Amino acid sequence: MNSRQPVWITAVLLIVGSVTLITGLQMLFAPAYWYAHVPGVPETGPLNAHLVADGGTFNIPIGLGLLWAARNAQRQVLLIAVAACAGLLHSLLHVWSHAEGLLSAEHLTTEVLGIYIPAAALIAIAAVLWRQAPQAASPGVARSPSQA
Questions:
Q1: By three-state DSSP, how is residue 102 classified?
Q2: What is the mean pLDDT of residues 63-83?
Q3: What is the mean pLDDT of residues 42-62?
Q4: Please, are residues 61 and 83 in contact by the beta-carbon 8 Å criterion?
Q5: Is 120 helix (H, G, I), strand (E, B) or coil?
Q6: What is the C-alpha separation between 65 and 6, in angstroms, rounded?
Q7: What does pTM read for this prediction?
Q8: What does the alpha-carbon distance between residue 106 and residue 131 come to, in Å, rounded to a whole number?
Q9: What is the DSSP letter of 135?
Q10: Which residues make Cβ contacts (< 8 Å) with residue 90, sequence separation at least 6?
């Protein structure tokens, strides 16, 4: 682990990465179990085990990537940003689904805790790290030895 990395960044990446990995594994290897046990999922329609497993194939590498990024987040800012974008798109899909009446508000707490907060946390981490990233020298500008 990077000792200069804020503890909160490491903690969030480990938690979100672990949950995403476990969710992906459940979706891939036990789609019916995942479908039956995630609040709100059954209201989206009948189980399509192949589609659920497809989702798992995306969650597994995202979870693994976030766990890897927890070791040194500054070096993995692009990876974190990609995961943040995935979370943002997933969040927007849920907001749209609510607006269209495709999802009820009955399980909104689950969505906030499981979708919106993790996405917002990853966006915040990516933004903090992006702002802290050393800027590459412009063309024609000499780099200092520490930037080489």
A1: coil
A2: 97
A3: 96
A4: no
A5: helix
A6: 18
A7: 0.86
A8: 38
A9: P
A10: 115, 119
The mean predicted confidence, pLDDT, of the chain is 91
Instruction: Report the run of H or E that residue 95 belongs to, with start and end.
Output: helix 77-99
Residue type, 90: H
State the pLDDT confidence band at 66, using cuts at 50, 70 and 90: very high
Q: Closest Cα partner for 16 from 128, 85, 131, 115?
A: 115
Give the phi and the psi of residue 136 in degrees, each rounded to 5: -70, 150
Nearest-5° Cα angle at 70, 82 to 67: 70
Look at the block and give the residue holding tokens 């520490």. 146
Q: Identify the residue whose tokens are 């995403």.
A: 20
Count the neighbouring beta carbons within 10 Å of the beta carbon of residue 14.
Answer: 16
Structure tokens at 136: 């590459």
| Rounded Cα distance, 74 and 70, in Å | 9
List the structure tokens of 97.
């689904």
Give the tens place of pLDDT for each residue, 5-18. Answer: 999 999 999 999 99
